[in-house]
Amino acid sequence: MAEVPLKDHQAGPSRRIGVYVLWVLAGLLIIAVVATIGFWQSVSSPYSSDTATQLFTIEQGDSVHIISKNLHGAELIRSTWNFEAYVYVDGSEANFIAGVFELNPTMSIRDIVTALTKGDVSNESSITIIEGWTIENIDEYLAKEDVLGAGEFARASDVTNTATLLPNSTFSFLVDKPDEANLEGFLFPDTYRIFSNSTAEDIIQRMLDNFGDKLSNSIVEGFRDQGLSIFEGVTLASIVEKEVRTVDDRKIAAGVFLTRIENSIALQSDATVNYVTGKSALQPSAEDVETDNPYNTYKYPGLPPGPISNPSFDALEAVANPTETDYLYFLTKPDGSTVFSETYDEHLANKRKYLQ
Fold first, then answer.
1. What does pLDDT average to over the chain?
2. pTM
């Protein structure tokens, strides 16, 4: 009797599974191809047809993620993911150059990466604004460095309404600035990379933007805790900046001034007298102290009408978080260190010891 071969009952289902897997793989391949094509199209396409050029800054140490976020915020790229993916595919993550670049929305991601990693920054220069400088100091420096003409920065900074100078920008920290006050105090001291053809308006915009970045919510809240508005806090910080050098001493000095204000005692700041006279004396003369000017805090109680310098972050932070003590007086020794006193007699003794 002939044997009948058994049918392979598994062959049909196995074959169907194999076909299914092939279809899945083919589908995934098609998706990958489409995604790849879409990705390369996206990195090669402009954000828009707007040809308006804008300045884009890369600070020293900025990561690819920070750069992509800033580009997205400036409406120069649509997707931070596509930008970052292209950077890593291109191997450019370590090639970004700190500086200021001219970009516009007609540039693709590929163009932008090229500009930011291989761009010509030879038309840039670096300026360093020192902590505690006044508008006049900054103006003199920029003229000396041939960045601007003499008086150009001072005239632009003397504006009382930034809308007339920078009509496309608003600065919330100027909300309580008196109408008659200029920009003294709000031009943040720092090192800036600028184009060789930068105008006074360009530089002021950078300084005000930087001030806004540095003025954290915690500092603003600290001002309020001391009973100060933003403008008043900056005004007091500008005095602390000129009076005291170290971080710890600045916090103590801020506390001394706030105690004096609270007790209706004149600030008697030598720095405000120097601001009036244009001198830099450790101890103003009796004649200087008698100068009749609202910025002279020997003659006029409370804060002066406005800032006397452009303060550093440390000075702003000192006013926001002062150190409470029983001191009411202090002086700066010739070596720059500070001596604090609780009583006027102690203060006079210190003056005889260190300043005479």
1. 89
2. 0.70
